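Feature request, filed as a ticket because there's no other form

It would be nice if the structure record came with a short human-readable summary line next to the tokens. Right now we just get the raw output. Example of a typical job, pasted below so the devs can see what we mean:
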Amino acid sequence: MKLLWGDIHNHCGITYGFGSLEGALKAAKTQLDFCMITGHAMWPDIYEKNEETEFVVNFHHVGFKKLFDHWEEVRQTVAEANGEGLVTFQGYEMHSCHYGDYHIVSPDDKLPLIYRDSPRKLEEDCGVEAIVIPHHIGYTPDYRGINWDEFDARISPVVEVCSKHGCAMSETAPFPYYHDMGPRDSHNTIYEGLRRGYKFGFVGSTDHHAGFPGSYGDCMAAVLAEDKTRESIFAAMKARRTYAVTGDKIACGFWVNDAPMGAEIQAGTASRSIRYEVETEYPLDKIVLYKNLKPMHVLNGEQFQEINETGRYKIRVEMGWSSSEELFTWNGSFAVADGQVADYHTYFVGRNVLAPSESAHYDVNDVNRIENSIHRISEREVEWQCQTVKNISTIHGMTDHVVFEVEGSLKTRITITVNGREETHTIEELLEYGYTHHMKPWHSHAYKVHRAVPETQYKFQMELQDEKKEQDCDFYHLEVFQKNGHCAFVSPVFVE
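Raw output as currently delivered:
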């Protein structure tokens, strides 16, 4: 199986978002394997128009009409973007106070734009293969949070766990809801849906509204697919071979009796063999294995202090800061002597827009016209360019990151050049300290080379046995937490 990364719920100027469709697809190609650009299409039970709701009602109807008027060209542009570099899906969004918000996802370029008053009717009547995915489920019931009484796992094999709105895993999950739509309600969490006996998998997506799919820190979906094609990725979603990450591409494998995440298996009263493999992008906080929503195994990062003298190491370069809203360009190179670059991941951020407001005014085409790219020059050198703006606040970063995995030893030398500033250090030195540089004396753009992490501290695996049946259908799922706050939520395995 291939581990692929995507964003199947993000917005741009095709309705009431910002940024061009072409720009959104270009941004997706810089760091994703698959994506869906999601237009807002309908709100069957929208509020009655009065003095207080007039802006909301009018704004949405204008956006819906914009998508309807241009659906054919939107659909064609998305279809033409589908290829080896980026797999695209067709789809759009339905708001609902009663059901909660859903988006329809289809691998078929013939997906029609139709209007229905429920997620089930939308899936049944669209005439092509599709699923419907509930999102930002944690809002108050009847206030566009999920209605678990109406949920149907047959048409919704996966549920969006996290996005820019926050994380709805549980009442105490990280990333509470702070959007103006309101707080996270404990009735509308992932845990509550599983407690009710529903069988579904987990995905994440950005719900970004400014044409930047995969914007770092706004959540992504991971799938385990046989190939990087629409058919394989869609099959993986239907089979629930999926999980959600909040930002970093944490690699996770999870099996019960050799059945992967999302599977339903028969085990009777026999022992269950549970196995996981996790590779983080930053030092580990903890890995928690849950059985029926109760922790049955915890692995703490503090247990792992050993440093491998040879093998692999990860080094993170982070760029941004300053007090400027103007785009600042970073040009960097990462070169290795006495070793090689085994892999790298980019984490680029788009200008932060979650939802429309009367005061929000952005240029539709230019809001996220950001030039990001990365190129492998050789097995020993990688170059990149990215652009950043200031952080939103002291707790909301807008920094870009590139994480390099190096094959070598403690004596391997790393030369990092950023905007003309060059430093060379051994892996051994970088395991002890990272370093920072500022570009000017005051309120400066800056970059940080993080302390290196040895593979003994980012690769983890565990096998254990569970001898006890607790209920007619036991279910197991995995949650992974890094020291930088990023998480992975891995779909359950259901054991009858």
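Something like this underneath would help us a lot:
Helices lie at 21-29, 54-81, 119-125, 190-195, 230-238, 427-432.
The longest strand covers residues 310-321.
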